[in-house]
Design brief:
Rossmann fold; 5-stranded parallel β-sheet; Serine Threonine Protein Phosphatase 5, Tetratricopeptide repeat; 43 helices; 13 strands; Arc Repressor Mutant, subunit A; mainly alpha; single chain
């Protein structure tokens, strides 16, 4: 064996052999980690899965950091080899990169496959040789001996069963050769060792018969018969009974070998069942033919390969209404879930990116954000894997084109995608999507729509006027809906008067609708608009400056420069006129045709300056409200000086961190759209400051891909900013975002650029922030030596400039390193105690909570139980004061661990229950770990 040749042996007790020398880790957990990584070399093992396996579902609070330390130890064992063996961090987990043939289980599986192929071709000697070579790799009676980890136990059982299968196939091949004597002797031993394994008895009977010992073969059958009857009260299997009869009859067919056993099936994984359909449209009318076609298509899903339906037609024709109405009718046919997303293909703002859509769907399936792959192709792969063999309905509403939706289509039969678009989607139809093209409602259905909205007695009283309205609206459902809304809101208006009003309008709106010139949809909008009060009409126009996709009254107030209570009244008026839709109580949205109509009116009546001023006020509102919430969530963040708010803007101020988080969740998509809107309109400072304000929320809620997209937009927008400090902040934030999704090379490259810029600006505090961030990134990459060096350099820089807050953070990082990596709890204690003093001096309560949690961990390892409990309690109190609920729950969980270690089980259970309440309320994945502890399984 070459000096640096590495062999991984798991067919028996796990061993790592380097050039004939065993260097297997002696500690149990690193040895178990190596076994887990060896389950599938060159494939990523997710970090959360490894933690769950190593600690049997009840990991300690610092499990992720401890896992990194174990990886670091293994990496050091593997360092110095030049044959391609490496342990690397990849996409939320770790991968052991090695030549597959370096793992004995892989060689065993390859030899077994070679043997089976030869057996199928009746090349019995070649088959037996391959099988024996594979079986010779085993060094003991069981695989992974001594490793008690769930996934390893499962794999060990599979390998042990495979070994027995291969043994039987090998002996079966040898029985086909000229001299089966040695095979018969081995079968005698195996039936004694595994007396209830009938397949071995069957081979023994066959071997004895072929060796000319038929009497002994029949006696072996009698032994098996008595054994099964005594032990289990059953008779031998039909295959053994059949062989028994064949031996009695001296059947010549016994010279043929037995068939191989069928493969075992794998159980499906658990998954969440999404129910995302919006409310069914009220007063849905018509489309009987289209509904019938769609109903027929459901029965073809999974049978005829139909996986997509493309509903196409012009704006306002009722595509979404048809899709959602039918989806509610057909929901029971899709028991595995229904997904829905508005792709915003024809809004004024940018369409929803395919990546954003697939991540939203993965979230709906219950995939935690940290388990979402970083690469788009991998995200699509995971999404389609979740759809495989499931009956799921996917509504892709308002698609821009085929390219936007193609990645979101299911990859296998069973799921059905329903796409709505103004585009003809000819590419999808060419690939097999079923087309449904909508035209205007016919006169009967249009009349029925008006009848249902206005009551039959009203339309029956004025049949001619009803017909005129139908003709004027040309069967366009959106136009009919607006007319009906106006008539319903004004019961004293006659339909005759409304019809006359429609006939007066001269302008055309075909540029927006794409309809025949005979349809004057602008006329429908215009008289509805003219019926508004002047103040409401102005707000309607200026709302077109809002970035979308929806808005609350406070944002509408900012657009119009009025008080929020005035905005609420005007929004209600717009909703009554069907010029806005109240999607959920208190949140309103434009139909995209109406938004375009409002923008056209604003350009004509308010001018460019008026519209630009409205857009600026909207950005001011979101910036100042978001920043106020950000300060509640993270009050110790270095403050920034905001762009002043324009007159007429009334920012909201949440009462506490919980309320701020609720606001951020409700406004998440709007805030991201606002960042892009500011960038596209040249508002550089609004752009980066708004991103600065939303970062903590996106970070804490795990929306890391959105965070990357946000800061990439900002980076491009401020590339030419004249303030170098701004560029430093932006690039540092982008580097942080990259590091969260493990794009470490790009993050380090950005920090290299920032370091040069910080030097030019002589920004030593900025350099300290840079080194602290780089230390965090190195630690995430398990490069602990580099991490601790960066933390120390950050500490020196912070001390040079007297930045006490930075010193506290760096000292806590250094102390945590000493505790977790070095196991030097005394050094760790000294660093973290100094960090706590500084955090208290600066009033950094979040830093105090983090450091107290570290001190609790250290004190517990030093068996200072009372102090550990005290530290954890104080951390809980601080997190509660800061409304940092996940931090509060995490410290409560740690407090429970410390109380249990100290022997106070009742207090421990109380702490865990309190932690569980918060985790459940947040939908946090750690909730299950607490349930296990409370169930007494920890």
């Amino acid at each position: 064996m070459a000096e640096n040749t590495v062999r991984f042996r798991i067919l028996g007790p796990p061993e790592l052999d380097v050039g004939g020398r065993t260097v297997t880790p002696r500690a149990a957990k690193p040895r178990a980690l190596l076994a887990l990584l060896l389950l599938d070399v060159n494939r990523v093992s997710e970090r959360d899965w490894l933690i769950d396996q190593l600690w049997s579902g009840t990991p300690p609070q610092a499990a992720a950091a401890t896992l990194r330390a174990y990886v670091y130890q293994l990496r050091k064992e593997l360092s110095g080899f030049d044959n391609g063996v490496a342990l690397r961090a990849r996409a939320g987990g770790y991968v052991l990169e090695a030549a597959p043939e370096s793992v004995d289980a892989h060689r065993f599986a390859s030899l077994a496959a070679r043997g089976r192929a030869a057996l199928r071709d009746r090349r019995f000697k070649e088959a037996a040789t391959a099988f024996r070579e594979g079986l010779d790799l085993w060094r003991g009676p069981a695989s992974f001996a001594g490793i008690d980890v769930p996934a390893v136990r499962d794999k060990a059982r599979l390998l042990d069963e495979l070994r027995m299968d291969v043994t039987e196939q090998c002996l079966g091949a040898e029985l086909e050769l000229d001299a089966p004597t040695s095979a018969v002797a081995e079968l005698e031993q195996l039936t004694a060792a595994y007396p209830l394994r009938e397949s071995l008895w069957r081979l023994l009977m066959l071997g004895l018969h072929r060796a000319g010992r038929s009497g002994e073969a029949l006696e072996a059958y009698q032994r098996l018969y008595r054994l099964l009857d005594d032990e289990l009260g059953i008779a031998p299997s039909p295959a053994v009974e059949r062989l028994h009869r064949q031996i009695l009859d001296c059947d010549p067919a016994l010279q043929r070998r037995a068939d191989a056993a069928p493969p075992r099936s794998q159980p499906p994984e658990d998954w969440a069942v999404p129910r995302q359909l919006p409310a069914a449209p009220a007063h849905f009318t018509g489309r009987a033919a289209e509904l019938s076609v769609m109903d027929e298509l459901v029965s073809g899903v999974g049978a005829d390969g139909i996986g997509a339906v493309a509903i196409c037609g012009s704006g306002g024709i009722g595509k979404t209404a048809l899709a959602v109405h039918w989806a509610h009718r057909a929901a029971a046919r899709f028991p595995d879930g229904q997904l829905y997303i508005d792709l915003r293909g024809f809004d004024l703002g940018p369409p929803t990116a395919s990546g954003e859509a697939v991540r939203a769907f993965l979230s709906a399936f219950g995939v935690p954000s940290e388990r979402v792959p970083n690469e788009f192709d991998a995200q699509i792969g995971l999404y389609r894997s979740l759809l495989a063999d499931k009956r799921v309905l996917i509504i892709l509403d308002n698609a821009r084109d085929a390219e936007q939706v193609r990645p979101l289509l299911p990859g296998q039969d069973g799921a059905l995608a329903v796409i709505t678009s103004r585009d003809q989607l000819s590419g999808l139809i060419a690939q097999g999507a079923q087309p449904i093209t909508l035209s205007q409602l016919d006169a009967d259905d249009a009349g029925l729509l008006l009848e249902r909205r206005l009551h039959k007695h009203r339309t029956a009283a004025e049949p001619d006027a009803t017909d005129q309205i139908i003709d004027a609206c040309a069967g366009l459902p959106l136009a009919l809906t607006v007319v009906a809304a106006r008539a319903a809101a004004n019961p004293t208006f006659t339909l005759t008067a409304l019809a006359a009003d429609l006939r007066k309008a001269a302008d055309r709106f075909e540029a927006l609708t794409g309809f025949d010139p005979a349809l004057d949809v602008r006329a429908v909008f215009s008289w509805s608009y003219r019926a508004l009060s002047a103040e409401t009409a102005r707000m309607f126009r200026l709302l077109s400056a809002h970035p979308g996709p929806n808005l609350a009254p406070a944002a509408a107030a900012a657009a119009a420069g009025i008080a929020p209570h005035q905005a609420r009244r005007r929004l209600a008026e717009l909703a009554r006129a069907s010029l806005l839709i109240e999607q959920v109580p208190g949140r309103f949205a434009f139909h995209d045709l109406l938004r375009a109509y409002a923008a056209e009116l604003a350009a004509a009546e308010d001018g460019h300056d008026g519209l630009a001023a409205a857009g600026r006020r909207v950005l001011d509102y979101y910036l100042h409200t978001a920043y106020a919430g950000h300060r509640l969530i993270n009050p110790i963040q270095d403050p920034i000086e905001l762009v002043p708010a324009a007159p007429g803007v009334t920012p909201e101020h949440s009462k506490d961190g919980d309320a701020a988080m609720t606001w951020f969740v409700a406004e998440n998509r709007v805030l991201l759209a606002a960042v892009h809107h500011a960038a596209s309109r040249g508002f550089q400072d609004h752009c980066w400051q708004l991103a600065w304000a939303v970062t903590d929320n996106l970070h804490r809620t795990g929306h890391w891909h959105d965070l990357v997209d946000c800061w990439q937009t900002v980076s491009e927008a401020v590339r030419a900013h004249d303030d170098g400090t701004v560029r430093v902040r932006v690039q540092r934030r982008l580097a942080l975002a990259y590091s969260l999704i493990e794009r470490f090379e790009e993050a380090h490259r950005l920090l290299d650029e920032v370091q040069i810029l910080c030097g030019e600006l002589d920004d030593r505090a900025g350099q300290g922030h840079l080194y602290q961030l780089r230390g965090y990134m190195w630690r995430r990459q398990e490069r602990f030596d580099e991490a601790i060096e960066c933390n120390r350099r950050a500490l020196d820089l912070y001390r040079d400039v007297g930045h006490q807050g930075g010193q506290a953070v760096a000292l806590n990082s250094i102390g945590w390193h000493h505790a977790l990596v070095d196991g030097d709890y005394e050094k760790a204690l000294a660093c973290c105690e100094e960090a706590l003093v500084l955090a208290r001096a600066t009033g950094d309560r979040a830093g105090q909570a983090a450091t107290l949690d570290s001190l609790g961990y250290i004190r517990l390892r030093l068996e200072h139980h009372e102090q550990a409990i005290s530290h954890y309690r104080h951390a809980v109190d601080l997190s509660r004061e800061l409304s940092f609920r996940s931090g509060e729950a995490a410290s409560l969980a740690n407090l429970g661990d410390a109380q249990r270690t100290a022997g106070d089980d009742a207090a421990a259970r109380d702490s865990w229950r309190r932690a569980l309440e918060i985790f459940d309320d947040l939908g946090h994945p750690d909730a299950d770990q607490i349930r296990v502890k409370l169930a007494g399984k920890a």
